[in-house]
Design goal:
Length: 329
């Protein structure tokens, strides 16, 4: 699915993020799994990640991010009429994390639902929110992206446990007079889904060991390095933009090697690329909003900056968005 926004100005007016307090370094991890700081850094670029406590659920981590986004947008919770939460690790299957957060925040007039698209969830969610806003079905939307993947890992599996961390982000989206989204590109390949999956987590009968995330790292790497490039190029072409016009590139923070490959193939300057995988690991749906927050903190998200975001993940799914940033509500 691909499309430009045909002049409908919908933008991000508020951004907030939050991560658990507990920091787990590579050396900490090496105490219980056969790995080392050098091994992890060389293969992933990760040096530490945030890990939620046993008592923390997704909504506990996401709510501070939501409140920050609302404050920046100068929006009261009662104004939100659509809440989409992109996650694969909700507090429970139902009631949804979105419904729980809407109730906590007093969003009495909001439609609320969770969206499951793996690490691409945030990209799918902002595209859906755009469609609802552009059509007039929604006036002001809140999109949350976050995951606590530490809750679904096999902590004896070195191939997965070193990669992931916990975190969440949120954005307020609404009609704007300047800037806004220019286009989206989304896709999925269910045939490759077996390479990154969570067997035993749904209605399909499962006779294996305790359910946990499993990943075929080689196949996922091949998929990621391909779609990070093709998806970005597709949305740029659709919006009649070139890679040279991009001011800020925000890739999904899965692995530094994947990011480096995409930067090289796209031909974008490394200094335009946001990288924080070294501090957070792969936070799934929280990855891109966390990177956006870092770009803002570094002064990169100036008025009129052309920002390219690309995600990919379980499904297998992928998605890109192009936005002309506006720095104030």
């Amino acid at each position: 699915m691909i499309g430009s926004t045909a002049g409908q100005r919908i933008g991000i007016t508020g951004l907030g993020t939050n991560v658990p307090e507990t920091v787990m370094t590579n050396d900490d991890m090496a105490r219980f799994v056969d790995t080392s700081d050098e091994w992890i850094r060389e293969r992933t670029g990760i040096r530490e990640r945030r890990i939620a406590s046993q008592d923390e659920a997704l909504t506990d981590i996401a709510l501070p991010a939501v409140r920050e986004a609302l404050a920046e947008a100068r929006a009261d919770a009662s104004e939100i009429d659509l809440l989409i939460c992109a996650t694969v690790t909700p507090d429970m299957l139902f009631p949804t994390a979105s419904a729980l957060m809407a109730d906590t925040l007093g969003m009495r007039n909001a439609a609320a639902y969770d969206l499951l698209a793996g690490c691409t969830g945030f990209m799918y969610a902002i595209a859906q929110a755009y469609g609802m806003l552009a059509s007039g079905l929604s006036k002001k939307a809140l999109v949350v992206g976050g995951d606590l993947l530490s809750k679904v890992l096999d902590w004896e599996d070195r191939s997965t446990v070193v990669l992931f961390g916990d975190g969440a982000g949120a954005v307020v989206m609404e009609p704007v007079t300047t800037g806004g989204f220019l286009g989206f590109e989304l896709g999925a390949d269910g045939g490759g889904g077996i390479h990154l999956c969570y067997p035993g987590s749904g209605s399909r009968h499962y006779e294996g060991p305790k359910p946990a995330l499993i990943m075929n790292g080689r196949e996922v790497f091949k998929f990621a390095t391909r779609v990070m490039v093709t998806s970005a190029n597709a949305v740029l072409e659709q919006c009649d933009k070139t890679i040279d016009e991009v001011d800020v590139y925000v890739p999904h923070q899965a692995n530094k090697r994947i990011i480096d490959y995409a930067v090289g193939k796209l031909g974008i300057a490394p200094e335009k690329t946001v990288v924080n995988v070294d501090r957070y690991g792969n936070t799934s749906s929280g990855s891109i909003p966390l990177a956006l927050a870092d770009a803002r903190a570094e002064g990169r998200l100036t008025d009129g900056a052309l920002v390219l975001m690309t995600g990919m993940g379980a499904g297998l799914t992928w998605g890109s968005a192009l936005i002309e940033w506006r720095s104030s509500a």
